[in-house]
Specification:
Helix 5 (121-145) crosses helix 6 (162-169). By secondary structure, this protein is α/β, with parallel strands linked by helices. The model has no long low-confidence stretch (mean pLDDT 95). The strands form three sheets. A nine-stranded mixed beta sheet has the order 5-4-1-6-7-8-11-10-9, with helices on both faces. A six-stranded parallel beta sheet has the order 14-13-12-15-16-17, sandwiched between helices. A two-stranded antiparallel ribbon has the order 2-3. It is built from 19 helices and 17 strands. The protein binds adenosine-5'-diphosphate and 6-O-phosphono-alpha-D-glucopyranose.
């Protein structure tokens, strides 16, 4: 049939995500400073421009008092953001607990935490209760700001309970849900004590989206095997109601990166970096300090490379920029000390009085510094053990038009399906393979680098965040029109 296109009309879009694009830091009773949030979800959604968008989410801070809440809401309003206030206990049980200690590791095939696997169902249950309560709070705020005709686009594993809460409040609401992480094999999802409730709730949405076809297929299998529903090529059917399920691979705002490279400020950073590392090849890692990113594995592979290639010692350096994240979750604290220990050991082993092989920074970089780093480095190392998409790999490619550096990319990142032909794909668990890929990348002749880069660059500039959102929203509108036609028949 004819493809409906709603893009021209500047549709109102309510984006609902746990994380707002800015996080708040308090400076006084009614004074707030807003800082950019870090992560793939924020990066993708900031690239979405052609809608009349409002963003509903948590500002990353506990604000118990009304004066503070009012002042923060006002400051956020200027950014077209609407806060959801969560108290400390809810954040602890919902965000640190259920989201980041249970769903996140499970969806990335790390499994469930030991204590929950062993019959302490009480803590599991109370965390799930807090999760549902938090989702209800999000639904209240959405409901308050909803206007007829709005598209409500819910995001990520924090808000799997939200589609159901929204439809219960208003069955006419157009609701989409998109997952930014992998959706695991149904055999993994089966382990989750709340497996039924979460699937059912997501199915209340009109359209459910994933980064890759595999994740969508896993979700459909979970619905057929665990809920016993019927899977069709379009989605999942439950008592005559169809939920559309499809893949919508995300991208970045590539132009923003390409243009930034021309800025004098970025050029200055590039000059400094080039001088600093003159005569050496530079490898780059940029990650949140997360257990899924395979940072220890990456560093151990680099150590193996140095061990086996004495001629490269002093001629290559690894810059690992790892911004701390979710620091109240014990697993993340353990990871930080583990990484520091490995880096210290390797620098002690291969460093000299004047140089070390690994520069590890526990911090985030601002946009200009990041662009400069992407542009001047020779190899990017992305070794995620699992990763929904991985936008760092896209950002690196976008900034490499002149240098044509090599991307080493984990086959377990969603991006492997789109950048696989240009990147060197590796199994991050195989340290030997990653070490030899480092050697291959460092020695790659210019014509091969050019060919590989060109392939990926073409993809990155033609599959943008804006296209991703436009396709999702247009598909959501079409789905709803089709459903209306079906019920009329
Ligand atoms: P994730 O969503 O798991 O964090 P992605 O690779 O998809 O992974 O997205 C990460 C985003 O966060 C990218 O836009 C990247 O630029 C940004 N980012 C990650 N680490 C840093 C860092 N150390 N400093 C600045 N930005 C970072
Ligand atoms: C991933 C998740 C996002 C999250 C981001 C940063 O990209 O998919 O939902 O916002 O990590 O994590 P944080 O816990 O700081 O929001």
């Amino acid at each position: 049939g004819e493809r409906l296109d709603f893009r021209a009309s500047k549709q109102r879009l309510l984006v609902v995500a746990n994380r707002l694009p800015v996080s708040a830091v308090r400076h006084g009773e009614d004074s707030w400073q807003l800082e950019m949030s870090v992560g793939g979800l924020v990066t993708a959604l900031l690239g979405v421009k052609e809608f009349d968008t409002r963003w509903i989410g948590w500002a990353g801070v506990n604000v118990p008092d009304e004066i503070g809440q009012k002042a923060l809401a006002k400051a956020l309003d200027e950014k077209r953001c609407i806060p959801v206030f969560l108290d400390e206990e809810v954040v602890h049980q919902y965000y640190n607990g259920y989201c980041n200690n249970i769903l996140w590791p499970l969806f990335h095939y790390i499994g469930l935490p030991q204590e929950d696997r062993l019959a302490t169902t009480r803590s599991f249950q109370s965390q799930f209760d807090a999760y549902k309560k938090a989702n209800q709070l999000f639904a209240d705020v959405v409901n308050e700001h909803y206007e007829e005709g709005d598209v409500v686009w819910c995001h990520d594993y924090h808000l799997m309970f939200l589609p159901k809460c929204l439809k219960e409040r208003n069955s006419k609401m157009k609701v989409g849900w998109f997952l930014h992480t992998p959706f695991p094999s149904s055999e993994i999802h089966r382990m989750l004590p709340s497996r039924l409730e979460l699937l059912r709730s997501v199915l209340a949405a009109d359209l459910v989206g994933f980064h890759t076809y595999d994740y969508a297929r896993h979700f459909v299998s979970a619905c057929t095997r665990i809920l016993g529903l019927e899977g069709t090529p379009e989605g999942v059917e439950d008592q005559g109601k169809l939920t559309r399920i499809a893949a919508f691979p995300v991208g970045i705002d590539s132009e923003r990166f390409i243009k930034a490279l021309e800025l004098p400020e970025v050029q200055d950073h590039m000059k400094v970096l080039k001088q600093r590392f003159a005569g050496r090849k530079v490898m780059l890692g940029v990650d949140r300090l997360d257990m899924i990113k395979g940072i220890p594995q990456k560093i151990l592979a680099f150590e193996k490379f140095l061990e086996e290639n004495p001629n490269w010692r002093n001629k290559v350096v690894l810059l690992q920029i790892a911004v701390p994240t979710r620091t109240d979750v014990p697993e993340y604290q353990k990871l930080t000390s583990q990484v520091h220990e490995i880096v210290g050991r390797i620098n002690g082993r291969f460093g000299s009085l004047t140089a070390v092989p690994i520069h590890h920074l526990d911090r985030s970089l601002d946009f200009h510094e990041l662009c400069a780093l992407y542009a001047v480095t020779d190899v990017a190392l992305v070794t995620s053990l699992r990763d929904g998409m991985n936008l760092v790999s896209y950002e690196y490619v976008a900034c490499q038009e002149s240098k044509k550096g090599v991307l080493i990319l984990s086959e377990f990142a969603g991006a492997a399906q789109s950048l696989g032909a240009g990147a060197i794909l590796v199994n991050p668990w195989n340290v030997t393979e990653v070490a030899s890929s480092i050697g291959y990348a460092l020695n790659m002749p210019a014509d091969e680098r050019e060919k590989r880069h060109h392939h990926n660059f073409k993809h990155v500039i033609s599959h943008t965040a804006q296209e991703w959102a436009a396709t999702f929203v247009s598909e959501l509108n079409v789905t709803i029109v089709e459903a209306q036609l079906r019920t009329r028949q």
